[in-house]
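Illustration: Tetratricopeptide repeat protein.
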Amino acid sequence: MLKGKKNKTKTNNNVTPFIPEGDFYYTKGVEAFKKRKFDIAIKWIQKAIEAQPSTPLYKCQLSVVYTEIGAYHQANQLLTEVLQTGEYVDCYYLAANNYAHLGLLQDAKKYAQMYLDKKPEGDFSNDAAQLLDFIKMEDEEEENFALEDEDELIILQETAFHHMENEEWETAIPVIEEIMEHFPEQKLAVHDYAQALFYTGKKEEAMHIEEDMLEEEPNNLHSHLNLALFYYETEDPAYEKHIQIINNIYPMLEEQKLRIAEVFARTANYTLAYERYQNVSLEQAKRRASYYKWFSVTAYKTGNPSKALRLWEEGLKRHPKLSEEEGPWALKK
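Result:
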């Protein structure tokens, strides 16, 4: 372990005090990280950064911790800060990995290639090459997607969307099953299927589906979203763990932004929901009755009744079916 410097000024009792510096804090953080005590690791490494803010290694290591807990946005913020102050080449691969987890494959491709261009024999060169191969296969699969199949898929997706938005879960199930059968690469359909099962009373089956998917892919955003909702509605405190993970994710896709905001609202995390709804594109959201319903509830619960009323009235104009509900002020939770 690296030791901190000693103060040359002696105290009255001739004891030389120990003053920890960045390397000491960093070492403690790495030890905690290896033991998977991520909260403790974050605290120690943050102290190392405070002690020696110009040391890029500390921020890189903190970004690795954030990646491990699924906080990809925060991880890339740190990596961007490092790259702005100098060229620490490993940052390019670390950023590529985070972008891949966020589903931003073109950004992942760019940063992985930059890493290989600058450090072809680096520690992450094999990982970067494998990532590029994966992205290439995804690109080729997308290019080979037949137009007639794409038309059929769009029709099925729109039909399923309509039924789910209107909470017609029994009707939605066979449509979603058809998507899963004929378009198995559409993984989102599995999460829609789990929702439909949950709301038709097959709650344990729905939760098992998402738990199994999360075991295979621990950073699956949609599994965390569904489980947060499922656990909350079954009064299982385990939902809080998933809310904490989701709160560290800031996706670029509008559909994912909207889904996160809605899950926060439906689990009574209204302050978090309000912040996320502020960043949702209206053009993407206005076709959803659920957007107006839950954003109005969020506004009302966060002390904005006039905004809640405006949202509710606009929602009624666009989606008359909302008139069957009582409005945001009637929600008990």
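Reading the tokens back as a structure: Residues 1-13 have pLDDT under 50 and may be disordered.
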